[in-house]
User: Which sequence fits this backbone?
């Protein structure tokens, strides 16, 4: 009887745990049904804001206005057709909303070319559209990109074919070329009174900042040199421009393997004469190099005749302020954290940004909160502390409200407002979260910290449902980029929000999922972001991924024989490297559009020197060998674990041939392999149903390969 009683109790406990686990199971379609907001912006006057919403692939513009900020849908695109909305802006008078529809603006190349996820015989166009804020039919202004509305709210300047074009804001007449400047033109900036236009003219080995005044006035080139000038910003009175200068191309071939400072400096120019002078030069250190986080230099001419910018010189991407005549810079943000998504208030008195800092710094390093600081005083204030996440803040034109995007570990990102001074936040558009979205069933990821073999501290997020068997299968998730950071909640990138949803889905299936923030990523300082021997020149970051697998294998609830790994882009590269080097540790993997042969990218990320050139790169041979050894193809002979390889064949970030080549190699070796080609979609799964296809294929593969205990 005791034996029978024990058996019944054990069976009951098993059924209870199984029922509890199954109760948390939901479909990928359900957890991917959330609306995702981006492109949040505000008008220079009044209290008007706008953003784009992607609702299961249907992308539309929404607007709201204070004091109530009731969301209102402004466009009515009804298809999941892969046409993204970017460059969203509101005219200064609040009358017009302008945006670009089409293209792939997160790509490494061909971002301005159409994306045809529907495989339509007639390709879509990349077009600039204008629509009244009050409502009405959107009007196609022209084919083009990067529109900027004049401060007078009457004209839109934009880029088409590398040249600057112009159109009435209401589209009442056809767009036309504004001027022609030899080279590829970009970074257009209207003067404060709308009478002139600054721009960058890239001529390959050098680049100028130019100022256009009229069709009959020659372009003014600001202190032309053999350098590359960038990031122009007007002074409030429109008489001067601040810009960044970096060295031009050329020089004798140098070592690939030696890390070196990448110099940059800040200059101010008189617009009337074109003369310029240097007001600041970056420290000649590795950390003082050109910043590589969101927005780059983040250069602005602020109020009180201050120039503000971002620099990594003290080991963190921090904000600085300097007088327009030069002098000692003022460090505005002092804590050990990063600043990103930086915006200047319309009155130019405040910088707002999202940072991984707050009241609970131990956990907040893996979150984002909205922070503000005056442009002339180190008086930083975290405005949204707590367990949530907030990012991409903007101030309304009347200075009364801060708009942002916020989320939690469970609630997906939504636009949010709060008073600029003090007051409660208001989350907008919560009614757009579908009833089928499993918000209450999502787990709160736990912060995990462990050490790599060389002592590097590595952060991760652990997703795990309660209950289930005593020994569970586990999965490592490796993000792409690599300058990215996964967080303790929904991510601010649509690509990584997709990954967060997939991790939640895998956890609901019964997997223990560990998302790894490996070195080369952001959020943990310069030495973590720019480590020695990283990427194609040593793959030192793989130590962190392997250490994550070892850490998982040591957890009491994990079956060490059933650990899988998956990731996309750079995460696909590290997934392939893991399977090639450590098939005994990683039992199966899903490699999504990964890099497999760095030499296809050029040695050290560049191009091979001409065979006819007498001067040679001094360490070309050892560097070439290291590039090969850092590529998964160099270790294919040890690859035994089964793999699913997924790639979209219009990928503009990682070439499709990277996977074609790997498939041939694995097939020749007899590695168990499945493949999924998604036709005519890009790196970013522009079509919602394609993101679902990728995610469901990943989940199904791991269920088949890892869910059943090995005999």
Assistant:
């Amino acid at each position: 009887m005791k034996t029978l009683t024990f058996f019944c109790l054990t069976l009951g406990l098993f059924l209870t745990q199984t029922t509890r686990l199954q109760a948390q199971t939901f479909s990928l379609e359900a957890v991917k049904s959330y609306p995702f907001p981006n492109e949040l912006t505000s008008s220079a006057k009044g209290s008007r804001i706008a953003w784009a919403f992607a609702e299961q692939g249907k992308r539309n513009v929404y607007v709201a206005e204070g004091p109530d900020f009731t969301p209102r849908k402004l466009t009515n695109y009804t298809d999941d057709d892969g046409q993204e909305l970017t460059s969203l802006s509101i005219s200064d008078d609040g009358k017009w909303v302008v945006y670009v529809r089409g293209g792939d603006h997160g790509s490494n190349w061909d971002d301005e070319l159409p994306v045809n996820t529907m495989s339509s015989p007639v390709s879509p166009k990349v077009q600039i559209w204008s629509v009244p804020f009050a409502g009405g039919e959107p009007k196609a202004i022209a084919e083009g990109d990067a529109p900027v509305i004049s401060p007078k709210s009457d004209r839109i300047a934009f880029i088409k074919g590398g040249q600057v074009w112009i159109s009435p804001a209401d589209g009442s007449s056809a767009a036309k070329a504004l001027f022609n400047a030899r080279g590829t033109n970009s970074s257009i900036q209207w003067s404060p009174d709308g009478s002139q236009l600054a721009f960058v003219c890239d001529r390959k080995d050098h680049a100028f900042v130019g100022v256009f005044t009229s069709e009959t006035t020659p372009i003014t080139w600001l202190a032309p040199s053999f350098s590359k000038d960038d990031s122009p910003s007007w002074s409030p009175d429109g008489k001067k421009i601040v810009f960044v200068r970096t060295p031009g191309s050329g020089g004798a071939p140098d070592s690939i393997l030696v890390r070196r400072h990448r110099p940059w400096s800040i200059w101010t120019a008189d617009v009337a004469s074109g003369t310029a002078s240097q007001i600041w030069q970056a420290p000649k250190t590795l950390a003082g190099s050109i910043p590589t986080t969101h927005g780059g230099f983040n250069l602005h001419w602020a109020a009180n005749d201050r120039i503000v910018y971002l620099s990594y010189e003290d080991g963190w991407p921090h904000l600085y302020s300097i007088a327009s005549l030069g002098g000692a810079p003022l460090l505005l943000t002092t804590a050990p954290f990063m600043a990103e998504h930086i915006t200047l208030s319309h009155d130019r008195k405040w910088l707002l940004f999202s940072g991984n800092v707050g009241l609970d710094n131990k956990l907040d390093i893996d979150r984002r909160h909205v922070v503000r600081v005056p442009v002339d005083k180190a008086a930083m204030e975290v405005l949204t502390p707590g367990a949530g996440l907030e990012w991409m803040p903007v101030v309304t034109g009347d200075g009364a409200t801060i708009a942002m995007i916020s989320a939690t570990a469970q609630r997906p990102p939504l636009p949010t407002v709060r008073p600029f001074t003090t007051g409660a936040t208001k989350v907008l558009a919560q009614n757009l979260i579908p009833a089928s979205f499993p918000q209450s069933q999502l787990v709160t990821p736990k912060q995990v910290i462990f050490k790599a073999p060389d002592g590097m501290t590595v952060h991760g997020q652990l997703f795990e449902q309660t209950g289930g068997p005593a020994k569970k299968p586990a999965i490592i998730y490796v993000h792409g980029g690599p300058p990215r950071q996964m967080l303790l909640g929904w991510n601010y990138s649509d690509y990584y929000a997709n990954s967060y949803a997939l991790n939640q889905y895998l956890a609901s299936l019964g997997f223990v999922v560990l998302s790894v923030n490996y070195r080369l990523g952001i959020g943990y300082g310069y030495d973590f972001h720019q480590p020695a021997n990283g990427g194609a020149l040593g793959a030192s970051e793989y130590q962190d991924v392997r250490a994550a697998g070892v850490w998982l294998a040591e957890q009491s609830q994990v079956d060490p024989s059933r650990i899988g790994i998956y990731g996309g882009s750079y995460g696909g590269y590290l997934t392939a490297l893991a399977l090639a080097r450590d098939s005994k540790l990683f039992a199966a993997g899903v490699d999504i559009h990964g890099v497999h042969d760095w030499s296809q990218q050029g040695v050290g990320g560049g191009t091979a020197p001409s065979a006819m050139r007498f001067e040679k790169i001094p360490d070309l041979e050892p560097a070439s060998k290291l590039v090969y050894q850092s590529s998964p193809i160099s270790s294919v002979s040890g690859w035994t674990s089964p793999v699913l390889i997924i790639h979209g064949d219009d990928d503009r970030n990682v070439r499709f041939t990277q996977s074609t080549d790997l498939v041939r190699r694995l097939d020749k070796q007899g590695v168990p392999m499945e493949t999924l080609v998604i036709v005519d979609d890009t790196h970013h799964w522009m079509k919602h149903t394609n993101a679902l296809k990728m995610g469901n294929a990943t989940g199904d593969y791991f269920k088949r390969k890892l869910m059943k205990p090995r005999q």
Q: What stands out?
A: The longest strand covers residues 558-568.
